[in-house]
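Usage

Read records sequentially. Each one opens with the input sequence:
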Amino acid sequence: MFKDEKEYYLVFSSYEDHPFFRWLEPGFCHVHLIFSDNGNWILLDPSLSSLNLRSLPKAYNLDLMRTYRKLNPDHTIIHLKINDTPALNVLRCGSISCVSTIQYLLGIYWPLTVTPYGLYSKLLAHTPSHIRIIYDGKQQESGEGS
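and closes with the structure output:
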């Protein structure tokens, strides 16, 4: 593991609250991120109206993602490790969305990638060199029981 390597879980899910979402790929209407910081689990959820950042103190030092997967079997979760994020001196145009916020956090800029499914597909097909995909969300992650 590199000194500054970060470990993230991107969670893709359905979202029924807005009429626009019926036009998106089923199961890929929203994306949020979960990560552990020194044993503390943090949820970063860029919603339509705000950026929600929540600490999950009761999950301290637990295998939260194993439980999360069991409770949300319809969600697609990508497990990533990210090395030093490259400096992107890019003027970002467009709206702030769950996809643009997650791209910013991952240190990528794909201006034509605007949907959660587009982000998922692009990450799998064109993984940047500073990102390592540990688990792609398609099958059970190694080391986990059913």
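Summary fields computed downstream for this record:
- DSSP finds three helices and six strands in the chain.
- Helices lie at 64-71, 98-106, 116-125.
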